[in-house]
Task: inverse folding
């Protein structure tokens, strides 16, 4: 198995380390050449969605990524990654991948006080997972066919639609491998 990690900006190295801990090969995607390598899944990290979208546009990555995801390539998006995958973003109208039927609010917890940590349960993954939120989005609503996997303080923070998995928090910034393991089970 080989996983592509979008590495335009943000916490891509941390995802690569998590996957290595699980014995899974990955490679970083910075341009179309990188992207054209064979892959079994894609990870889109947390970071700054504004910067990622700008570079994706410059590198002509929108169409090929969107097509691959629509064709069923499994994808996991964390935080900014979730924003890139959302069909609707309440407070941002820029072009994005828009492959997942969710409506997201960006910087939903406020810009300054937006970073916090809780332990929470994720359906099908486990209990008391460490959840680190950094200027995070949350999911305001989901469409048919989207499964809600985690709710914190009444807000949806993880969801799945077929082979697409998103979370508001950063599993890659903890040493808990369960979210990545869960994603790999979706890939298999
Ligand atoms: N606030 C960021 C954005 O809107 C996401 C933050 C993150 O990925 N930690 O892109």
Result:
């Amino acid at each position: 198995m080989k996983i592509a990690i979008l590495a335009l900006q943000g916490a891509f190295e941390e995802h690569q380390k998590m996957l290595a801990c699980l014995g899974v090969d990955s490679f970083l995607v910075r341009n179309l050449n990188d992207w054209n390598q064979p892959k079994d899944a894609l990870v889109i990290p947390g970071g700054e969605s504004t910067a990622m979208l700008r570079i994706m546009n410059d590198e002509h990555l929108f169409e090929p990524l969107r097509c691959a995801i629509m064709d069923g390539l499994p994808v996991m998006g964390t935080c900014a990654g979730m924003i890139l995958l959302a069909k609707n973003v309440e407070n941002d109208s820029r072009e994005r991948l828009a492959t997942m039927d969710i409506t997201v609010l960006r910087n939903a917890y406020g810009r300054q006080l937006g970073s916090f940590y809780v332990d929470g349960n994720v359906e099908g993954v486990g209990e008391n997972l460490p959840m680190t939120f950094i200027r995070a989005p949350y999911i305001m609503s989901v469409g048919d066919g989207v499964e809600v996997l985690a709710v914190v303080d009444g807000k949806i923070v993880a969801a799945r639609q077929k082979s697409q998995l998103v979370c508001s928090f950063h599993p890659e910034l903890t040493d808990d491998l369960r979210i990545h393991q869960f994603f790999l089970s979706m890939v298999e």
Observations:
- The radius of gyration is 15 Å.
- The first strand starts at residue 2 and ends at 6.
